[in-house]
Specification:
By secondary structure, the chain is an alpha+beta fold. The protein folds into two domains: about 325 residues, Outer membrane efflux proteins (OEP) (Up-down Bundle), CATH 1.20.1600; about 60 residues. The chain has ten helices and six strands. The two termini are about 45 Å apart.
Amino acid sequence: MASKPLRLSVNDALGLFLSQNLDVLIAKYGIEYTKGREVTARLFPNPLVSVGTLNSFTQGRTLSNSGQLFTQVSQLFELAGKRGYRIESAGFGTQSAEAAFEDAVRQLGFTVKDTYYRIQLAQRRLALAEENRERFSRILAINTIRFNKGYIAEVDLIRIRLQMVDFQSQVIRSLQEAESARGDLRQLLRLSPKTVLELTTELGFRRIDPDIEKLRVTALDARPDIRAKRYTFSQRESDLKLAKAYRIPDVTIGAGYAVQGARGPDNPGQVALNAGIPLPLFNRNQGGILQAEVSLQSAEADLDKTINLVENEVDVAYHNLLQSRRLVEAYFGEVLEDARSTFTIVERAYERGGATILDLLDAARTSRTIQQNYIEALFTYQHNLFQLESAVGQEIKS
């Protein structure tokens, strides 16, 4: 029993993609990973508990009657705001990961929409090829009878038969392209290969006339990869402040209590309080500061590179959209109908003997080429629109 087709609009496909795509899920795990770093950054150092004994090995003195048992608890106190800088750095890291997730959705979302319409393109090609094949199948049947009666030459029948083979090959290629695109879409949506897809959003034309200056400003604000790089730059600034803070040594404060045996000194119990601080004579984290400075410079250069890349992507996508729109609009009016009607007129003239087989084949190829080029132009326009939306970082309404 055939499975029920899964009906999908392009928005349905995007929704399914966000909930099921494995690359999206992996990107989400990256956010949770950085949140773990935030938790670690907020933690205080653990206190240290130490226990020891002291004994004099002279005659008549043992550990039980003259030894000393002491315990101590010590705690490291970080100075110069180190913990605050770590928390700040981890926070920027999480924000960068969240922006990187949005960027992954942006890029993969473009792939989903483009793949969706590649299927529609292949189906439109298939419909055109099947129409031409059926039309020439009737022409071939009629002319086979005419050849058997001696009304046409064998070479004309062979030409019609060859044209039929060409249309049949177009049908097969379109079927292969459609199935390949369906496989890509099923993989993006994490669907079984057995899932039958029925796409409901047609490959059509929606005229867009965007303002390039607004697009440039919007892209710098909306693109998640730019935000991710900005957060990374801020994180490197926090890391530099943390590295400089490590020039200030931390203090360890401890308190202890000692208990001694009956033959020990006069005091049976003693209390100790101590503090320790490293002397920064040699290591003042010079290497860590240098590494943090270089990381900051690298993050700044990476941010500038991304901004330049985005500006160029927007500009190229915008001009590609204008050119593809101009091409689609060139087919409007009577061009498509003229291509169809010319083929019909020549076909009828051929049946009456008023046109040659070469005229018929030329009209068929011209009609097919015009209609196929129009379908290609529609897809290219839609592709360039998605490319511009991806470059800007949001959907373009008008």
